[in-house]
Amino acid sequence: MNARFTILGINRGLFCFTPSVALIRSVVVKRAFEMLLTGEFIDADTAVEWGLRNQSVQNEELDMAVETLTAAIISKSAAAIRYGKPMFYRQQVMRLEDAYSYAANVMSCNALEEDAIEGIAAFLDKHLINNH
Questions:
Q1: What are phi and psi of 121, to 5 degrees?
Q2: Are 23 and 60 within 8 A, CB to CB?
Q3: Cβ(44)–Cβ(4) below 8 Å
Q4: Residues 114, 99: Cα–Cα separation, whole Å
Q5: Dihedral pair phi/psi, residue 68, rounded to 5°
Q6: 57-100, pLDDT tens digit by residue?
Q7: Which of 57, 70, 115, 132 would bridge 65 by S-S if both were Cys, CB 3.0 to 4.6 A apart?
């Protein structure tokens, strides 16, 4: 595991203004500010601990980890992902009440997709049969 992460600008006399926008949305504010003010590197395990990365794997395990994650994602409904991805990012900047309203509207549209109709029916069949 050779990956290291830094926000380097401060070491060159420049505060990293635009990277700070994304960083503060991924890392606890105090950690983000520390990274922005020190320009110090953190290792891959620390990046995971701080929430900058999802996971850390050994170099020789990287291809398998990518394949596993990719397989998990592509096995899901393309329609659900098509609705979910933009909703996930758009709602982040909304007021809480507006985000819930927007999410409910998008969910209603997604629920009309064939994949969702089949999935909900299968869930209900399984639970109605098992509960009687």
A1: -60, -45
A2: no
A3: yes
A4: 25
A5: -65, -45
A6: 988 999 999 999 999 999 999 999 999 999 999 999 999 999 99
A7: 57
What is the arithmetic mean of pLDDT over 4-15?
92
Architecture of domain 77-130: Orthogonal Bundle (1.10)
* Tokens at 82, concatenated: 């098509």
Sign of the Cα torsion 42, 45, 49, 54 reads: positive
- Write the DSSP symbol of residue 51: T
Question: Which H or E run includes 118?
Answer: helix 114-130
Residue with tokens 């982040």, as numbered in its chain: 92
Topology given in CATH for the domain delimited by 4-73: 2-enoyl-CoA Hydratase; Chain A, domain 1 (3.90.226)
Q: How far apart are CA 111 and CA 17, in angstroms?
A: 40
